[in-house]
Amino acid sequence: MKELELKYGCNPNQKPSRIYMADGSELPIKVLCGRPGYINFLDAFNGWQLVKELKKATGLPAATSFKHVSPAGAAVGLPLSETLAKIYWVDDLGELSPLASAYARARGADRMSSFGDFISLSDVCDVDTARLIKREVSDGVIAPGYEPEALEILKQKKNGNYNVIQIDPDYVPAALEHKDVFGITFEQGRNELNIDEHFFDEIVTENKEMTEQAKIDLAISMITLKYTQSNSVCYVKDGQAIGIGAGQQSRIHCTRLAGQKADNWWLRQCPKVLNLPFKEGIRRADRDNAIDLYIGDEYMDVLNDEAWPNTFSEKPEVFTREEKRAWLDKLTDVALGSDAFFPFGDNIERAHKSGVKYIAQPGGSVRDDNVIETCNKYDMVMAFTGIRLFHH
Description:
Helix content: 25-40%
Strand order of the largest sheet: 3-8-7-6-4-5
Radius of gyration: 21 Å
Distance between the termini: 28 Å
Number of helices: 14
Strand content: 15-25%
Number of strands: 15
Shape: globular
């Protein structure tokens, strides 16, 4: 197949639309089910690159959950704790395969953003992963292959219209890439930067004790940022992104946005939230919405006298600001990556509130001394990579 006609482009009025190889060669993909659209393929191809690099960097199966050409979550296949399995709504599925665990983590970290996602998997999709995907609201999946039973499970989704794409894992794109904007063609060399264990060697803070887990988490952060629309920062804990901020014009706003997502991920693990008395039969999406409101500043939207009986069997107590802060203070050893330098120490102050211990950023700001000083105040470890990772 040398070209594939699409229903339309980014919007229904943008026709015609297709994907094809400019050199006339065969496309490196096969559509096994459904009819993927323009944005589906943008998400699929960006996500595939991300998980392929995560697998190369860590040796573990990887998954990402994409929305609007940026990852909502990304993770490697480490076992789930009982608490994580519960907040990701997979505690009824038993022990999951490493690939399924990776997707549960990628999908579960920010479930509000992952709703209706496009999934990318580094490995052949197995039955555990297919069963997990089947129960979630999702637009499609791309993987290097599918176990026969897994493919049959996925083909049952959306009345047989779920998008399933197989990609050739050996496909290597051309060294130069092109993009048309306003009828004008842009050309650049592909970003083939290899992020390995030496990427974080230049530690500029007083504390220089970088653990192996921190290096892995920082690598996950930077690889995720490589495929996230800029400005972007990424908080990572124990092998998974827990807060991604994408496409913000201000670095501090990006750090705050991603930090709030990381905070929400941790607040959902508080016993007060884990034990919320949901009514029987409440859908997962409705539970996600209720939890998001309950742990936020607009908690009365779900706790007022008219609203709470629709969701809970009894009215929950307010999760006070003091209780939330006390729980957040237990979050530690978080890694934070940034796709460009931090211009001021205010970003570090905000990161500290979300348990950040390890930081990687390019460096090069005229205020690097202020940023380093702020890190030293909190005994953080910060590495300068010297490499910017903008993605547009």
